């Protein structure tokens, strides 16, 4: 039991370190590679692709296209359990364009009855993040956000 908690603590510290390095590099303009364009698939409506690009490049546009309070999930750092959260405008951190960091991260889209699911994950699928988008009153909006979560060992 004690060894398991030490493993969780190690992974948590490692995750925080990686996050800080990535965040510092992106703030200092020393990105590993340029942000990539949205993946064009036959599952994605063309107006969604235009929305997605603008959403991640214009903060005011992004704020206007999020259904606040936004439902979602994050992983509790102490228990590693998934907890429900509600994001509000005043605690929202703007999302930036996708960057694979040299192939470290990948993304997938699926379209389920007009709701676009976006999954971003590392190549080992240890960490995953999910966003969902839907068209409301003729405009695309972010309707769900789940932060990066660590896959638990079974």
Query: How many strands?
Result: 6
Mean pLDDT: 82
Content of β-strand? 35-45%
Give the biggest sheet. Answer: 6 strands, mixed
N-to-C series of helices and strands: HHHEEEEEE
Tally of helical segments: 3
Uncertain regions: pLDDT < 50 for 5+ in a row? 25-32
How large is the radius of gyration?
A: 16 Å
Considering DSSP H and I runs of 4 or more, what fraction of the residues is helical?
A: 25-40%
Report strand order across the widest sheet: 2-1-6-5-4-3
Assign an overall shape. Answer: globular
Return the CATH architecture: Roll
Q: Span from first to last CA?
A: 15 Å
Counted up, domains total: 1
Q: List the quaternary state of the chains.
A: single chain
Fill in the CATH topology. Answer: Nuclear Transport Factor 2, Chain: A
CATH class value: Alpha Beta
Q: Which structural class matches the secondary elements?
A: alpha+beta
Notes on the protein architecture:
By secondary structure, this protein is of the alpha+beta class. It has a single domain, classed as Nuclear Transport Factor 2, Chain: A (Roll), CATH 3.10.450.410. The protein contains three helices and six strands; from the N terminus they run H-H-H-E-E-E-E-E-E. A six-stranded mixed sheet has the order 2-1-6-5-4-3. A hairpin with a 2-residue loop joins strand 5 and strand 6. The chain starts with a helix and ends with a strand. About 5% of the residues have low confidence.
